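Margin note: ligand = S-adenosylmethionine.
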Amino acid sequence: MLHFPVLLEESIDFLVQKNDGTFIDCTFGRGGHSKNILEKIHKNGFLTSFDKDPYAIKFAKKISQKNFNIIHDSFCNLNKYFKENSVDGILYDLGTCSTHFDDPERGFSFNKDGPLDMRFDNTNGESLIEWINKASESEIMKILYTYGDEKHGKLISKEIISERQKNPILRTIQLADLIKNIYPEKQKKNHPATKSFQAFRIFINNELDELEESLRSAQHIIKKNGIIVTIAFHSLEDNIIKNCFKPKEKHYPRDIPLNNERIITFKCIAKKIRPSNNEIKTNPRSRSAIMRVFQKI
Ligand SMILES: C[S@@+](CC[C@H](N)C(=O)[O-])C[C@H]1O[C@@H](n2cnc3c(N)ncnc32)[C@H](O)[C@@H]1O
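Resulting structure:
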């Protein structure tokens, strides 16, 4: 399956306000947004892209433009690479690429049999196989509720523990079938394992903590008037984004002096932008995308 960049024109129009600026694409993926940024900037502009996924890095290395650099690291480490007030625009297009689901060996898909890996960076950290075969019932249940809003989390975690006592849980289809077989309700639209797979993926990749940490760094490294564009795919991500950009003053009672606090303020210049019906028709994955745009003031 091809990967279609979501809200491409809309996001890059906001992001690139000057063609000799310094830009960051935090989520290179298959390079849809990065390539568009590179088309817009001229040779004095510069784009640095990040991705955790070694396959994304392989794609990025094919780009030979001199004003482009790819970094194989998590976007939560932005501040290792950039100084304060040094960047004109930062883009986040969160979550997975369609291509992650194409390769069964990555373990993201409940429709294709493969090892239960689910790491964006499969050269680093703990895979789902390692975790799911040692986690306690209550740990599994907590992940299913917190990151998947799976109301049958208790039932599913119990079944995982019971299956584990007979056979280790190693394959995507093994886990998907286990969930399907005990799921109490018939699901018309989605596979019964949809929410569980989402929850495990978010947990294994530490997606929400890394997003929050990265947005905090982004707020420092972006210049005054610089732009941060975010594209989120579910409310857990979107809530973190909204919270991070809430005016800070609101958190302090009026009588506490703020002299020593450096207050960084952002204006939301576009909120809740959704893909058009046409885009959703061509790329159904885009249907849950929510774009927000913030400017440092
Ligand atoms: C939706 S895709 C980006 C698609 C890209 N905009 C395009 O048009 O091809 C999200 C990408 O972000 C990467 N990713 C997710 N979390 C990350 C993190 N914490 N740091 C760096 N990359 C991350 C994933 O590996 C994936 O390749």
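Residues 8-98+207-296 form a domain with the Rossmann fold fold (CATH 3.40.50.150).
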